[in-house]
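G.,

No rush on this.
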Amino acid sequence: MPTHPFTNARNRIDVHQHLLPPNYVAWLSSHGVDAAGGRTLPDWSIAAALRTMDDVGTASAILSISTPGTTPARTAAEAVRVASDVNDFAAEVAKDRPDRFGFFASVPLTHTEQATAEAVRALDESNADGVVLLANNGGAYLGRPEHEDLFAELDRRHAVAFIHPADLPGPAVPGIPPFAADFLLDTTRAAYLLVRNGVRRRYPNIRFVLSHGGGFVPYASHRMALGMFADTGRSLLDILEDFSTFYFDTALSASAVALPSLLAFAAPGHVLFGSDWPFAPGAAVQYMAAGLDTYAATSDSALGIDRDNAAALFPRFATAPTLTSPNYVAHARRAIKRRVVRAAVKFVAPS
């Protein structure tokens, strides 16, 4: 039988948590960027991150910057400088609290030679836990021929590549903030091209993690596979295997409707906990965590999501000290009772 959900959740590993270094926020502002995905850039601090993590029993989190990444940069040199500054900042955070934080290195993917060099530097010298790749960079999606050198380096290192959506290369639809629907399509497009263009087969050692439950991938996989079969003649079983062996995080996707479909589709051990904090505010994180806890209470297949599946990908966190506060269970129950009812309202309220 599953353990009590709060016991199970005590030592989560969060693979989808963002950071907003002050210098990066200032740089975005200098380029006229004050929002991401239709939401105003939130406040961020290490102290606030730790408070939110403690609220939902997260022992460790892997940090990354969100969209727009380095795409506002006007030159390759500027993009490299911004990426390296972000990575150096994140590396210091992880160095100061290696038990609580890791990071995915940012790379200036609009300049692929420099992106490969920065990935190598961050992985080999700064102990990055992987890289974060935007699904599209200025309209250019992952899986293009010019990305081969980067993928080859990641494959040699058996690296984790965390795929995060960006704004679609086209105007947003009035009344639909990009994070609500467009992000899911953006992730799906990138996943489709990584499968369709053979990247998954040529570089089998890269562990790709798809944000937000994989976008539409788990739910439209058979339709997409049929389309790809008609286009390429590839085996339907091979196509579906490529889709199902992505890793998927639960950020904003841990509902009683989404989780059964995701767990039925994903390969065993390939679903990971994600919070999307601070773009998902604390109340929304509580809401999604409560949904996962509730589902885990009745499903053995959900028990690995909180920790074990991520610990297999990131072994250093498997041996990190875990949260042992005797007040955790009572605190979590009070926090969820206080916040879960109003979380959805707060999350969808205009920024």
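When you get to it, here's the other one too:
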Amino acid sequence: MKKIFILIMFFCSILVSAQKYYTKTGVTEFKASVEAFESVEAKNKSTTAILNTNTGEFAALLFIKSFHFDIALMQEHFNENYMDSDQFSKATFKGEIAAFNLDELTKSDKNFTLKGILTVRGISKEVETIVRLKRIGSKIVLDSEFNVSPQDFNIEIPSIVRKKIAESIHLTLSYELVEKI
């Protein structure tokens, strides 16, 4: 009887894990540029994200220091002066894709509403945006864009550079999720 129970638990764990798709190489970009000034933008190519295809639950985690800028000094200022990345090393998102149905995904983009909590610098804010999902082979491709305000996360922009940084930060997400085995 004990062996049957262990065998059932083993197969249940396989089924549960097969219901999730994930990535460790998701790309998260932000742009905070203002015309007539130097571009303020960075890319993080190591965002971890997971999607539960049964429930539509979605979560993502990224390390702040993994954002890379073209200009090293800008990256240093970003980590030390704005994001306090030694103290607040990561940003997280936890939410749900409304009306998600894996069977409806095709090679064409399908729009869904994503609602959840974005936590940056220890401050949580509710976010709602549209995500575009499609299925290419065994992968789920997720793309989205939305804006946040530095003030929402107590990010202080010194007056000397305030006019060089956008009031609204544009985020772009591009994740290729594979089935978690």
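The chain has one domain: 20-179. The domain at 20-179 is CATH 2.40.128.110 (Lipocalin).

Enjoy the weekend,
O.
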